[in-house]
Amino acid sequence: MTKIVISGTGLYTPEHAISNDELVTSFNNYVEDFNTGHKADIEAGKLDALLPSSTAFVEKASGIKSRYVMNKEGILDTARMTPNIPERADEDLSILAEMAVLAAKDAMAAAGKQAADVDAVIVACSNLQRAYPAIAVEVQDALGIEGFGFDMNVACSSATFGIQAAADMIKTGSARAILVVNPEICSGHLNFRDRDSHFIFGDVATAVLLEADTTATAPGAFEILSTKLKTKFSNNIRNNFGFLNRAAPEGIGARDKLFVQEGRKVFKDVVPMVSNLILDHLKQADIAPSALRRLWLHQANIHMNDFIGRKVLGHDPAPQEAPNILDEYANTSSAGSIIAFHKHKDDFEPGDIGLICSFGAGYSAGSVIVRKMG
Description:
Peroxisomal Thiolase, Chain A, domain 1, globular
C-alpha cells in the first residue's frame, strides 16, 4: 500500500510587523476621534460611545502580542485602518500568488524537488483575492509546474482539507507530488475599528509538499497515517463580502462584509467539536492520546488551544506538547497549524507521532495524524 508523506514545508513571513501597543494606539486614536466627532449624538443617546482597547485586554483575550502584515502604514492610519495594497496589472504576478510562490519554493527546497517533480498545486486558504482565474493555476505557472491546480476554501481548516485532498489524489495515481499552499492576507478582511476583533489576524503564507514515500529523498519526512474531516453549518463566524455585494466605503454600515463572529458562541461550540473530532480520530486509528508527542493546533486563541489540549491529552499541555505561535504571528487562518508544524517538528525522532489540526468558520475542522519516518 502506498504511503503518503509530507516531505517538505515552507513559510513566507512578511517583513512588516505590528505590535499590540502600535495597534491599540491606532485604535484608541480612532475611538477618541469618533467620540469627539459624535459628541452631541452620544450625549443625546442616539449613539453609543466607543470604548478604547488596551494591550492587556488583547493579550488576555487572545494570547496575541504581535502580527505580521503585508502593509503596515494603511492599517495604522486612523483615517483608513485597512491595508493599502495597490492593484497590480493583470500581466503581473498577483500578491497572493507571490506569497504562495515564496512559501512553495521553500517547501520544494526542503523536499529536494524541482518543478518537474511536482504535478499539481492546491491553493487552500480563507481569503482568495479573486474569483478566477484560480490563484493555484497562477502559482503553478510561476513555478513552471506541468499538470493542474485549483483553489479551495474551507476557511481556517483549508490547509488540512487540502492535505487530505492531495493525499487522496496521490494514492489514486492522479499525481506524483502535490504542493498545498496557504497564502493568507487576513488583514484585508479584518475590521480594525471593531474593539472585539481588531487584533485577531495577521498575514503569512505556508506550504507543504506531499508525495509517495517511494519518491521521497530528503530526510525528515512525515508519513500521513490518517486524516479526518468534519463540517457543521454555523453563522457564528461569517464574512458576507463577495461579487454579489460590496462593502460600503471603509466598511461603515456594512460590518458583515468584513470578518464578524460571536466569539463566546464560537468558543462554546468549537472546543468540544474539535476535541471530540481528535479523540474519535485517534480511536479510529488505534492510537492512544498518550502516544502523541505533539499537537500542532490551529492558532486562533490561546484559551481554545489550552482547552482542546487538556481534553485530548488529559492534562494541561506543556509548551512542547502544543506549541504556540500566536504571540508572534496572531491568527493566520489556514496557515496557523502549518506554521506550528513547520517551526516545531525538527526535534522529532523516527517513530514519533503528532497531530495537525485546524478549525474555523463553517464550522469546519480537519485532523491529520503524522509519524516521523526513519
